[in-house]
Amino acid sequence: MQSYNPPIRDIRFVIHELVGAASICALPAYRASECDPALIDAVLDEAGKFAGEVLSPLNAIGDREGARWQPGSDGTGEVRTAPGFPEAYRRFVEGGWMALPCAPQFGGQGLPRLLATAVSEMWKGANLSFSHVITLTHGAIEALTIAGSDELKATYLPRLVSGEWTGTMNITEPQAGSDLAAIACRAEPQEDGTYRIFGQKIFITYGDHDIAPNIVHLVLARTPGAPPGVKGLSLFLVPKFILDAGGAPGARNDVHCASIEHKLGVHGSPTTTLVHGDHGGSLGYLIGEIGRGLEIMFVMMNSARLSVGTESLGVAQYAWQMASAYARERLQGSDGKSGGKVPIVRHPDVRRLLMTQRSTTEAIRALAYTIAGLQDVAHHAEDAEERQRAHRRVELLTPILKGWSTESAVDLTSMAIQVFGGMGFVEETGIAQCLRDVRITPIYEGTTAIQAADLAGRKLARDGGETLNAFLDEMRRDRAAMRTADDPTVRAIAEELARSLDDAASAADAIRQKMTSDPAAGLVVAEPFLRLMGTTVGGWLMGKAARVAAAALANGADDPFYAEKLATAKFYADHVLPRTAGLAMTVRSDDGLLLALADEVF
Ligand SMILES: Cc1cc2nc3c(=O)[nH]c(=O)nc-3n(C[C@H](O)[C@H](O)[C@H](O)COP(=O)(O)OP(=O)(O)OC[C@H]3O[C@@H](n4cnc5c(N)ncnc54)[C@H](O)[C@@H]3O)c2cc1C
Fold first, then answer.
1. Which pTM was predicted?
2. Which one is catalytic: 142, 445, 496, 527?
3. Within 10 Å of residue 461's Cβ, how many Cβ atoms?
4. Is 440 helix (H, G, I), strand (E, B) or coil?
5. 184-223 pLDDT, tens per residue?
């Protein structure tokens, strides 16, 4: 089985030449952390080694052995992670990797999100199940940093930032999945200002495990008399072990793992059912104000949504690597020129499959890192207006990345299986694991339908469409520059991009009108609209990448990478971008029929 090969050259290109690491490093916060492009390269190299040498070898073991639930010594359950996971996590923490993007005041290294995103692409590509604990811990750190009291921050953040303890997100309940208003967990106030939590949470990632001595659960629950719906939700910090007077994990809190799920994929990542309050209530501490829980949790969810986009990128990259290697080895048929059998990479359709995978994965990477760079600006630019603009752009692009890249990654990993033929359908080659693992990404952290509704409803309507229009204008300006490029490939890409930008603009108008006059009709086409936007944004970024590559070649660069980049961008423009025409037609179509049909028809 082919192990994960960190795509350092591609990553460096996007970080340095497309997004511009130098300008991100020049932001005051990163100047203070002494971050520069050389440091970024050194960190990428080390992360690549850790991903390839430590995490990748555990990927198949995690899949095969899985996390296991066992009866605990106190009569309740506990989780054992797959062999090798605890040791890998110990090395991860020792290497300081958890602290990389975190604030220095709590022990973090204060390095850019742009770099953190690249590093996490490698964790996710090498071992998606392992990477979950990092995603959830970073989400908990963000939520606590923004809303926690000084005391909670001082007590918990340094240990989460170091990775000594890990975090979780306790949202989902049996009756409350996409519909967070249905959350029913109760939080009873106590005289000393703490709370006791009662209720069941399901599907909680790394809700129990043996890789760290304490777990910090962030739990959404309802206080007595709270209004119905999401306005009645508050957020609580519930440690697995209550801290003793010296701040060390002491008595067991009343939150227990009742079971773990047996799943299609990510077997190495424990998905737990947590029962709060079977023995008097789990002890919880309020984070932020009563009734503001969802607002704070959204910080964690948005961070996790971007992270899930990066998950799909990592796995799609690994799947392409495996398919590409297999296509060079497997001999089958002839090409009509040489007499003997040829490697299947010579067959036109196999080339199409591989190039669709490679070019779309590159487009997803460009989008994920672009958003990460914008997050850095949104947090650290000196100018408040610039921060606000970047923040709004991140908000617009988040559902696009989460929805489009995860749905695309399912298709791309399925294509990788197609390249393997029958050997793709059997487990021994390892490619099937990629599809099984990546299949969760369009589901958790808000399904694609929820992302699409967020984009078509909230994000387009929020400021009268100003953010989207400014974004379309920027893409049009870049396309105008591509049109006048010296390189004919770049000019050809500009022609295709022009059509997709028109599709995006007309579809945005159509969906805006539908959402105003008949929201249900708008929601019928929200998912195609999201895909249209993702495909177009991918084409814009691939066009920009082609321009950079053409300029490098014109300046005498002899790295074959640049000619390959021009080729993948052209392929994307010819084979992927034109899909926007069909999607735009769907978005503009009249969907009265679908809504009028009786339920029995479906
Ligand atoms: C492996 C795994 C890990 C997870 N980790 C966590 C975790 O750490 N913490 C946590 O709290 N949760 C976690 N979850 C839960 C996950 O976030 C939910 O499964 C997800 O939000 C969907 O909710 P649901 O499963 O109840 O599906 P449902 O909400 O029942 O949705 C079923 C279908 O109906 C559609 N649908 C529902 N409502 C709407 C609507 N309003 N508009 C359009 N379509 C709609 C959905 O898109 C979907 O296609 C995890 C789940 C899994 C499988």
1. 0.97
2. 445
3. 13
4. coil
5. 999 999 999 999 999 999 999 999 999 999 999 999 999 9
